[in-house]
Design goal:
Elements: E1 7-10, H1 14-27, E2 30-36, H2 43-47, E3 50-55, H3 66-75, E4 80-82, H4 92-100, E5 104-105, H5 110-117, H6 119-128, H7 144-154, E6 158-162, E7 172-174, H8 177-195, E8 200-204, E9 210-218, E10 224-236, E11 239-245, H9 252-269, E12 273-282, E13 285-292, H10 299-306, H11 310-318, E14 335-342, E15 354-355, E16 358-360, E17 367-371, E18 378-379, E19 386-394, H12 397-410, E20 412-414, H13 420-427, H14 430-434, H15 441-445
Parallel strand pairs: 1-2, 1-4, 2-3, 4-5
Antiparallel strand pairs: 6-7, 6-8, 9-10, 9-12, 10-11, 11-14, 12-13, 14-19, 15-18, 16-20, 17-19
The structure holds adenosine-5'-diphosphate.
The site of adenosine-5'-diphosphate has 20 residues, from β8, β12 and β13.
């Protein structure tokens, strides 16, 4: 089969850049790495066919510097750009500029990025497509009077969220009118600082939900396939720590109903590319929260249980080829778990950048390590603290858990602090062993 592209620029760094590069290499596509001056010795730079330094260590000077990235693509004769996750992956202007420059943006259309990038328009779109959403304000909130009146309708506790939010930032809980007025102000400041937009809205704050998300992939020819769900309920500060697929909470009937609703909705939406619909699940009901119009960090566990390489399929779909499988071809088999290993103190979660003095990755049947670090690698202080994704696969959940326990024990990353001990502690907990947890479990139980 001919490669879908001849040369791709990967506008990202770290493990995800490497993940994309691996798929490209296997498909015979040449790769261009871009990097900051802090990442000169990063594995994604060392393993790419070509590399271009695009700016200083700060993300805004490099991985968010659209003009430098486009120039790098231009001088290397790239025919497509993969944005990875984070950075510019959900930036409408970037997607448009890539296409305006005659290259393919590996992702959905700018139109879909735009409607899903604003959480209010995303929720309204989903309501129109027949998907239930978390009860909340139909529009952004502007005045204090409006907020107080809406709060009466929704009922406390209420979650204030940023309309352009991401990474759990800008979210505040309010239990009464006073807290609402105070936290609205704080949420606005945080939203403005993080997203350059102080738009906020409110939702009912669910007390015991699980975070369950559905992976989809769609092509240019109207085919939409659902690749099952992931349970990402174990979170700290609304950020995912440990993910598993399938969710231990869903019955096969619930799963099938959810998949079929999502598949129909995405077909109507006319979406193409990979995407994830995030839901809260409580008392047998699903409530849509948001849609991520890109690859996700935890796509790996879906790959393990379906045997489908999501990045390769994403590249095929972006090139205009129809999907090579249909819904009935998808078989979900076994169980997969991902532990996000961060360069952080496992007790107080302070970042722990620095030099890795000894590195030994686990192996053996059922173990996958997606990581860009190596012996002697210097973890820079400028970026996300994720240093490795440790993924295990077993014929069932108990086996995936026991392989994870064994793999964590084998994993050696010396010189910096990591969250390996946090995951070991997690796996020792009965609720995690039985799969009995909600999105609040981790914060409630942390020592
Ligand atoms: P972000 O885009 O910032 O990651 P999300 O809307 O995806 O924000 O929410 C992140 C997490 O915050 C969810 O996985 C969930 O744990 C929590 N959360 C979001 N909305 C609610 C809600 N209405 N009630 C309770 N928890 C929520």
């Amino acid at each position: 089969m001919n490669p879908p592209f001849s040369k791709i620029l990967i506008a990202n760094r770290g493990e995800i850049a490497l993940r994309i590069m691996r798929a490209c290499r296997e498909l015979g596509i040449k790769t261009v790495a871009v990097h900051s001056t802090a990442d000169t010795y990063s594995k994604h730079v060392l393993l790419a066919d070509e590399s271009v330094c695009i700016g200083g260590p700060s993300s805004k000077d490099s991985y968010l510097n659209i003009l430098s990235i486009l120039s790098a693509a231009d001088i290397t004769n790239t025919d497509a750009i993969h944005p990875g996750v984070g950075f510019l992956s959900e930036n409408v202007d970037f997607a448009k500029m890539v296409e305006d420059h005659g290259m393919t943006f590996i992702g959905p259309s700018p139109y879909h990025i735009q409607i899903m990038g604003d959480k209010i328009s995303a929720k309204q779109t989903m309501i129109g497509l027949g998907i239930p959403v978390v009860p909340g304000t139909p529009n952004g909130i502007t005045t204090e009077e409006d907020a107080l009146a809406q709060a009466q309708l929704i009922g406390y506790p209420i979650l204030i969220k940023a309309t352009s939010g991401g990474g759990g930032k800008g979210m505040k809980v309010a239990h009464n009118n006073e807290e609402l007025l105070l936290n609205m102000k704080l949420a606005r400041v945080e939203a403005k600082a993080n997203f350059g937009n102080d738009g906020i809205y409110m939702e009912r704050y669910l007390k015991q939900p699980r975070h369950i998300e559905v992976q989809i992939i769609a092509d240019h020819h109207g085919n939409v396939v659902c690749l099952g769900e992931r349970d990402c309920s174990l979170q700290r500060r609304h950020q995912k720590v440990f993910e598993e697929a399938p969710s231990p909470a869903l019955s096969s009937k619930e799963r099938e109903a959810l998949m079929s609703t999502v598949q129909k909705a995405i077909k109507k939406l006319g979406y193409r590319g990979v995407g994830t619909l995030e839901f809260l699940y409580e008392n047998g009901e699903f409530f849509f929260m948001e849609m991520n119009t890109r690859l996700q960090v935890e796509h790996t566990i879906t790959e393990m249980i379906t045997g489908i390489d999501l990045v390769k399929e994403q590249l095929f779909v972006a090139s205009g080829r129809p999907l090579s499988f249909l819904q009935d071809d998808v078989v979900i088999r076994g169980h997969a778990i991902e532990c996000r290993i961060n360069a952080e103190d496992p007790h107080n979660f302070m970042p722990s950048p620095g030099k890795i003095t000894t590195y030994h990755a686990p192996g053996g049947l059922g173990v996958r390590v997606d990581s860009h670090v190596y012996n002697g690698y210097l973890v820079p202080p400028h970026y996300d603290s994720l240093v490795s994704k440790l993924i295990t696969y077993g014929v069932d959940r108990p086996e995936a858990l026991s392989i994870m326990e064994r793999a964590l024990r084998e994993y050696v990353i010396d010189g910096i602090k990591t969250t390996i001990p946090l995951h070991q502690w997690l796996l020792s907990k009965e609720d995690v062993q039985t799969g009995d947890y909600t999105i609040h479990w981790l914060e409630k139980n942390l020592p």
